[in-house]
Amino acid sequence: MDTKNILVLGRRNHTEAMRVAAGLTIFGHEVRLVFMTEPVADTEENAEQAELLELSDIEPETTVAEMADDLPFLDTAALAKAMTAADRVVNI
Fold this sequence. Notes:
- The protein is an alpha/beta fold.
- Helix content is 36%, strand content 20%.
- The chain has helices spanning 14-24, 44-55, 76-85, and strands at 5-10, 30-35, 61-62, 88-91.
- Strands 3-2-1-4 form a four-stranded parallel beta sheet, sandwiched between helices.
- β2 (30-35), α2 and β3 form a beta-alpha-beta unit.
- α1 packs parallel to α2 (44-55).
- It is globular.
């Protein structure tokens, strides 16, 4: 299997997006995760998934202005560039 560059967009379910992103690294894929729509909820489940991201060496990014102090912020042009550069885009 060829290594793919995969972009995971966490739009409707941030928890599931984190789980999927971490899981995709098992296959050796390069994975980027972008949180969208709203800030990630401060829940125990999200904290557990965030730990998986750390273990998977995934540094999430965001398009949510309220999260820009904590995560790298992607404006519209940067998001478009990330989508264009990806071999696959997963929308969750």
